[in-house]
């Protein structure tokens, strides 16, 4: 696959993934879809792994023009196009920045899953907000009976598990795509891009078209 086409594919793939990360993080701010618990949100939610890491930092990779002509610039020679080094350098830096953001998203989501949510283990009249599930000797993920200790927010454990798992999966996928783009950009530096298209005019002569693919 052309380095430019690969770059464009990565850009189009990362855009919806980043959007989904942002949505998942926003939903974590409103447990069970309610706004009254925003004062008792898990720390990992406020670290904004999905919004800052998997969303904004990953979407920054689009600055490599992955949605347009890819990472290819001017200057075609023969059957390949060698973009300016500064363009490819920006592509590599943007990809590494995106990989860092997705890694941040994965770490925050993983810690959020490990620690469990902040929940009220007392009563509605006398609340006791604790990271109750974090202190268990066994993992709460496989011990669903421990979920009942969280009085409110309702369904907070399942809510956090579902959304943090989504962020974890999306972050891993984003990290893989960013890594692919780093390798792709390096190949672009060494081998150039292959955007040449040939067309035969009415006189039977062949001419090169080095325009956008």
UniProtKB/TrEMBL annotation:
It comes from the Eukaryota. Keywords: Membrane, Transmembrane, Transmembrane helix. It holds the Pfam family L6_membrane. One of its GO terms (cellular component) is membrane. The chain crosses the membrane at residues 12-31, 43-62, 92-113, 156-189. It is found in: Membrane. It is a multi-pass membrane protein. Belongs to the L6 tetraspanin family. This is Transmembrane 4 L six family member 5. It comes from Leptobrachium leishanense (Leishan spiny toad). The gene is TM4SF5.
């Amino acid at each position: 696959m052309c380095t430019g086409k690969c770059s464009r594919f990565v850009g189009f793939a990362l855009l919806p993934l980043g959007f989904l990360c942002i949505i998942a993080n926003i939903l974590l701010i409103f447990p069970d879809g309610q706004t009254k618990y925003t004062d008792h949100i898990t720390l990992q939610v406020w670290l904004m792994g999905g919004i800052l890491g998997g969303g904004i930092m990953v979407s920054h990779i689009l600055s490599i023009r992955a949605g347009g002509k890819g990472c290819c610039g001017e200057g075609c020679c023969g059957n390949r196009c060698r973009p300016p080094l500064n363009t490819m350098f920006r592509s590599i830096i943007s990809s590494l920045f995106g990989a860092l953001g997705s890694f941040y998203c994965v770490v925050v989501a993983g810690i959020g899953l490990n620690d469990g949510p902040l929940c009220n283990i007392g009563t509605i009249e006398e609340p006791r907000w604790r990271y109750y599930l974090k202190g268990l000797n066994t993992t709460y993920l496989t011990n669903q009976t421990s979920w009942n200790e969280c009085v409110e927010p309702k369904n907070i454990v399942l809510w956090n598990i579902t959304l943090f798992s989504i962020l974890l999966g999306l972050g891993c996928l984003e990290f893989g795509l960013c890594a692919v783009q780093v390798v792709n950009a390096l190949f672009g530096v060494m081998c150039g891009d292959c955007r040449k298209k040939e067309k035969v005019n009415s006189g039977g002569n062949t001419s090169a078209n080095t325009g956008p693919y």
